[in-house]
Amino acid sequence: MSTSTSVQDRDTGSSDPAYTKLKTNDLVWYTEDVEGQLSDETRTRLETYSKIPPDQVVPHIQAVRATLWSLRAYPCTGLYVFLTPWLAHHSSLPHIIAHLQSPQTQDPKFLDVGAYIGHDLRYLHWAGIPQRSLYALDLLPFWELGYRLWKDEDVFRSTNVIGDVLDESADSEAARVCDGGMDVVYSSAVLHQFDVENGVRACKRLCRFLKTGDDGKGKRGSLLVGCITGSKGVEGLVDVGRLGKGGAGGGDGEQDVKKPVRHSVESLKRLWEGVAEELGWDVEVRVAWRTWEEYGTDPQRCAFMGSDVGVLEWEVRVL
Ligand SMILES: C[S@@+](CC[C@H](N)C(=O)[O-])C[C@H]1O[C@@H](n2cnc3c(N)ncnc32)[C@H](O)[C@@H]1O
Questions:
Q1: Domains in the chain, CATH or no CATH each
Q2: What is the spatial distance between Cα 119 and Cα 15, in angstroms, rounded to a whole number?
């Protein structure tokens, strides 16, 4: 594992969205307002754990964000949403911790797919899960900038793997390190970038990371957990181009061949039930829609997505 805090960019093709490769601040999901997303909990963590002087906290965050933004223009980066681990707000968090700490779970392992700077992994560690249980998978080694944000390069150790959730090959590093090894597979703010077909591919790939039972299917009690932005009402497709500040043509997303799905509770449930059926797995699927406030964000920051949009959570338990 590399310990330098610089990130080497690479061509990630269509595995991540075209709009994230725009090199501009002229996007509706770009703000300079850090304080509006900086919770007391995160500020205290940066002052005590990372030992950043109180008056340096905001400039420090801004400096790290500038590097993150120069790599990929994700809404969670532009809006500083990465300061708020979504896992902390997920209603499955107690189930995740209970499963990882259960005496029945030997050598517990948790994988975060699209782990970014490792904020959810740190949250889980601070909630009592040992670092040796924590795995990160991402297209780019953003975790290097997590070390820079929290100044914990010598303290925090997860197992970090560069990989693509759409890569189905059996000889990738992700396959070697993670396939069949995980008790909980978590993914937040990733699946909403996919069209219908890639959504199914990604969900099946997440399933492959789970430990297997004697029947070769997902091990009983294993969990697939995550969240995406989603609709309170009906599902549809997202016109990303419309979201550029310049109106039509303001987002490269218009060049995307297929538009990402904006799921509803029903369509996301159908997706997971369909994937489980194809794999022949017995599962219990729970999906819930939550508001931005419930996920620690002022709804005004996300208003550009539409008033019926919030966070869709899922928990898929293997029976
Ligand atoms: C919007 S960020 C979300 C980060 C974090 N999970 C969160 O909830 O704040 C999306 C992350 O997923 C990663 N990602 C995007 N497409 C991916 C893919 N095909 N395979 C693996 N990771 C991917 C990105 O590099 C980025 O770190």
A1: 86-318 (3.40.50.150)
A2: 22
